[in-house]
Every structure is written in structure tokens, then in C-alpha cells.
Amino acid sequence: MRSDPFQNQSRILVHPLAYVRHDRNWSQQDLVDKIARRLNTAARREKAWRWERWGVVPDLATQCALADELGVPRQAVRELGWPHWLPVGQRIDTDTPWTIDGGLTLLRETAGAAVMDRRGFMILGVGAAATLAQQWLTLDPPPLRSALDGGPLDASLVDCFEQRLPTLRQIDALLGGGSVRDVVDAELRLVTDLLSNSSYADSIGRRMFAVATELGRIAGWASFDAGHQAAAERYWVSALHTAHLADDRTAGANILKCMSLQRVDSDRAEEALALATAAVDGAGDAPARVLAMFATRKARAHAALNDASAAERCLTSAETHMARADDEPGPTWAGYFDQAEYCAQVAACYLMLERHRNADRWLAQALDLQPTTRSRDRATYLIWRAGVTASLGDVEQACAYVHRAAPEVMKTRSLRNHHRLMGIHSRLTKYDTPATRELDERVRGLVA
Fold it and tell me: What's the burial of 68, exposed, middle or buried (CB within 10 Å: 0-12/13-18/19+)?
């Protein structure tokens, strides 16, 4: 019987309150005991479980008692609300200047540290990411300078780093974020050291900051895929600054696109739309493939807001751009956005809008075109199609799609896909049929 490859990821701290307890070495019983002593009430452990796992919000008196225990002003409780007032450790500095020194400071604070961050929740306050996006849109990149001590950074070394990026992307696509994030972080640390301690001409510096940008994007995506939400934010904020230093507008817009999806997944759709809009606006005259990619992400944010007409307008724009994509291939990091991925992103919008037949048609195309090298994505789209098929009434076919997806999920370290698998398993096994009983046995055997 195989072991669950997600057992280490299961220790991710999925709520700010869990982080507070971990930081202070408190059990859930310790937590409720401390609150109960201040309020002179019963200390029931299940309260803490509901706060952390079920999204239950403690009443104001309970929050104030906990704030007193943690040394947080009660004014912060009232102004910030639950759970945003909880002290969750080092925050992301959104006031870092958009300069070389500021960008290098963020890199040094991120590379190495972010990979250790196990917080499964975002830590940027509501609106902070959108503010960063607007700053990025309106600033011009500073001239680079070779004012740092150390040996020269030459083009051949930058070539080596640039040539490694496609391999890192491929590892992520094959094995999932949990398998690649440590490797990418180590590479980012090396690049950070070189940028901090070498001398280089403007052109070399911009190329190296572009490498740091893509490494930060990959590390952020891998962290997001593995359930480390705060680490993903930290990598992406740093990468947005280095994209600015590289004077690469499309790479910076790509960072905002990633941050938009994170907020869609976290039910912060309005902020997701602001980030996706900034990505589209900032991309300017980017290649058609890139514009199509950003348009689908904006459509997805509209779909999350249940604005079908706005989503359709964005999808029409994406279709127009995608028709020209082969003539304007775009940067290497956009190569994954082929016809298969385009179809999948359109399907994702229809899924959110609950237009099941449209979603099914686009998912069928995505799966027919999907390369075998993208195990994680294929598993995602099979699970999505299982859900659509179940909604259309064919439970047996839905089970067949999950049977195909399950082995792919278990061989990639993607916590997002693991959650999707368990979610569709739970949904389908509510039906008592031979197909669902067989599926239940199969999935339980895989994760046991």
C-alpha cells in the first residue's frame, strides 16, 4: 500500500489562528483555555477547530479576550476584523521603494526565507496587491548601475541561468510545485547573491533581473500549487519589483496574472479583477499569445464575480488574440499557453458561470490537445470534466474521468489537485452505484 505523498504538505498552516498557535506552541485546548480564563466561560476545544477549519468567526468578546492575551490593541480587532488582526509573523513590506536597492533588499528577504514559510493563507491585506499593481503601472524603471563590489557578471553566465529556466518549468509541470520549489529557491538565492555582489553593465543587469523575475514567478507558482500561500505572495511581490528593474512589462504583468488567480481561489474576486485588469493594461503591445493569456485571466475574475457578459467580452478578446498567436509566439515563459491551455482557461470561466455544456465542450478540446508532459494539468482538467459530467447527470462517466485523473494526482506533489481529487471523490460517492463504490475503493487505496 502506497504512502500519501501529501503527508508533509498536510502540516501547512491553513489559517492565521493556526499560525498563531504554532508560533506560541499552543494546542487548540491551550488556546480555548486562555480565552476561557479571561471570560470565565467553558473551554471547549471544538470551538478552536471550528474557527480554524470551518470558517466560523468568534464573537467580539472572544476576539477581544484573545487580543488581550496576544498583546494586540482592541482597536485593531475592530478596525481590521477577523482574522486580519491576528499577528501572523513577518509581513510583506509593500512600501519598499521601486529602486535597485529596494529590489535587492526584497530579493535577499525572500530567497531562502520564503521556502520555509508554511502559511496556507495570504498575508497581504485586502487592496494591498492592487495598490502595488497600480504603482508598477505608473513607474519608469531606474537606470542600472555597476556600483557594487565584486567581480564582473558576464553574458556567458547569464546565458547559463536563462537556459535553465525551461527545465525548471518542465519539472514543475511534470511533478508539481511541491517537488520544484526548493530547487527554484536555491537558484534564486544564487542569482540574488550575484546581483548583490557583482559588477555589471546595464544590459547584463537587466537580463539578470529578468532571470530573477522568472525564478520568483516559478517559485511563487510552485508555492501556490503546494499550498504555501504566504510564500507565493512573497515571491511574487519580489518578482514584480525585479520585473520593474529589468524593464520587462510583460513579465511584470505575468506576475499580476498569477496573483489574480490566487485571489480567485481565495474568494477575493474583486481584488483578482483589479490585478488582472492591471496585467492587461500593463501588457501594452505584448505578443498576441500573452494578450490572450491575460484576457482569459481577466475573464476568469469576471466569472468569479458572476458577471457573464463581462467575462464573454474578455473571452472574445482572447479568441481574437489567440488567432494571431502562431504569428507572434511571445516570450519563452508564455510557451505553455498553447491551444490546449487556452481551451482549458475558457472552460474554467464557464465552470464558474455554471454553464456546464459549454465547459464540457471546451474541456474535451483541452484534453484532446493536452501534451503528455503536463501530468498535473491533465489531472486538473479530468477532475473538472468529472464535475461537469456529474452536473449533466452522467455519474458513471464522471467516475471514469476520476479514475483516469487519480494516478496523475498521486504522482505529482500538487496540493491543489489533491484537494480537487478529494472534493470530487466526496461529491460522487454520495451516489450509491457500482461505479461510485468502485471509485471510492480506488481512491482510498491510492491515498492510504
Answer: middle
Q: Find cell 474568494 and name the residue.
A: 267
Residues of the chain with pLDDT under 50: 1-10, 146-149
Q: Residue 8: what pLDDT?
A: 47
Q: How many Cα atoms sit within 13 Å of 60 on the Cβ side? A: 8
> Among all chains, which residue has been given the C-alpha cell 515563459?
333
- pTM over 0.90? The answer is no
Length of the chain as a residue count: 448
Rg (CA), the chain: 23
**Best CA proximity match to 304, nearest among 339, 249, 267, 341:** 267
Q: Is 38 exposed, middle or buried (0-12, 13-18, 19+ CB in 10 A)?
A: middle
Q: DSSP string covering 22-53, please?
A: HHHT--HHHHHHHHHHHHT----HHHHHHHHH
SS3 13: strand
Residue 297 pLDDT = 97
Cα 74 from Cα 165, distance rounded (Å): 48
Find the angle CA(234)-CA(239)-CA(240) to the nearest 5 degrees. 100
Q: Are 233 and 123 in contact (CB under 8 A)?
A: yes
Three-state SS at 193: helix
Let me know: does 279 contact 253? Beta carbons within 8 Å.
Answer: yes
